[in-house]
């Protein structure tokens, strides 16, 4: 291909990318970047994990020893 086709094509693709970025910027895609990260974490999860940890007693040191292992 000649440069007469590739240069305008690359400029057009760059302008399309810039237009997509400006559209996303005005559409509110970058307004709350941390909110989406915290919304996926359920609020009841920490209490559920605490309940599981509190229900099981800690293993005794004698229980951790496996015969045949040193």
UniProtKB/TrEMBL annotation:
This is Cbb3-type cytochrome oxidase assembly protein CcoS. Residues 49-58 have a biased composition (Basic and acidic residues). Pfam families: FixS. Residues 49-70 are annotated as: Disordered.
């Amino acid at each position: 291909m000649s440069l007469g086709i590739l240069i305008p094509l690359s400029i057009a693709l760059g302008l399309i990318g810039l237009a997509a970025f400006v559209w996303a910027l005005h559409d509110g895609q970058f307004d709350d970047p941390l909110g989406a990260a915290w919304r996926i974490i359920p609020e009841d999860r920490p209490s559920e994990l605490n309940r599981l940890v509190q229900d099981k007693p800690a293993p005794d040191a004698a229980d951790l020893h496996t015969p045949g292992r040193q």
